[in-house]
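User: I'm writing a short report section on ligand binding and want a predicted complex to refer to. Could you take this sequence and S-adenosylmethionine and write out the structure as tokens? A short remark afterwards would be nice.
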Amino acid sequence: MNDFSKFGEAELKGWSEPETAAAYADGFASAAVQCVPDIVQASGAGNESKTLDVCCGQGIVAQGLSATGASVIGLDFSPAMLELARARVPGVEFVEGDATSLPFEDRSFNAVTMGFGILHIPNSEAAIREAYRVLKPSGKFVYSVWHSPELSAAFRIVFGAIGSLGSKDISLPPGPEIHAYANPDITYPALEAAGFSDARIDTSDSYWEIDDPAKPYDYFFEGTVRGALLLRSQPKDNAEAIRSAVGEAVKEEFGSQGPWKIPIPAAIVSAVRL
Ligand SMILES: C[S@@+](CC[C@H](N)C(=O)[O-])C[C@H]1O[C@@H](n2cnc3c(N)ncnc32)[C@H](O)[C@@H]1O
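Assistant: Sure. The structure tokens for the complex follow:
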């Protein structure tokens, strides 16, 4: 069994920083918000549904669920994120808690959603088991995960630049692979092991629209935790070289004049509780 405990501590600390939470909500999440209609549709949420949005962050998925007429509870472990969520969707209840130990009774919800949360959880199997436990029979579990660099210009360009120009002396606490749950060979067995059936993966063609070609660097630097750890610990020369290479790569691939539209597609994974 992997020890991802240091990674988990870094995630809690990072997402609890108000600057990181706000930067994610205002920048990186401009792509995440495009996935909300697909997540909400896959959840089957509607007028009579009771729904839970885990890793709710700034509340965009909770807001989408609420717009269907469903009752919604949002849960996140970051007080800074919860503050943003409460300001965004005043009618929804938001609670502080951990995705791997949900403070709810068995079989309470018709749908559980998790927008870009699973990749941040050291013990993701426990989070999937918890989603199963709190769902009613026939309830839907839906989560989103960023697709891997092979499908994602945003991840390919930023992590390509880090790979070629980043300092080799920087190491992060070991943690789960970012894109693992977009991979059917990992996500389907994990869902089946928890008891889910009818798992499927769809894709949201989300993108960043940017007017500075180096913006993808800034989005990772300012509004993530794992990516930021990697970028903020770079020596100045490496950091400048990486940011400049990101800008050059964007111009080379998407044209010399902005604004630029950078694909950062997401897997929308859904499954049914038996
Ligand atoms: C990338 S943000 C996603 C926010 C939002 N759901 C969206 O779709 O944009 C990840 C969120 O997961 C939360 N998170 C990470 N690990 C968690 C855990 N173990 N329990 C509860 N929340 C967690 C973070 O605080 C953060 O708000």
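A remark for your report: The chain has a mean pLDDT of 97. The two ends are 28 Å apart (CA to CA).
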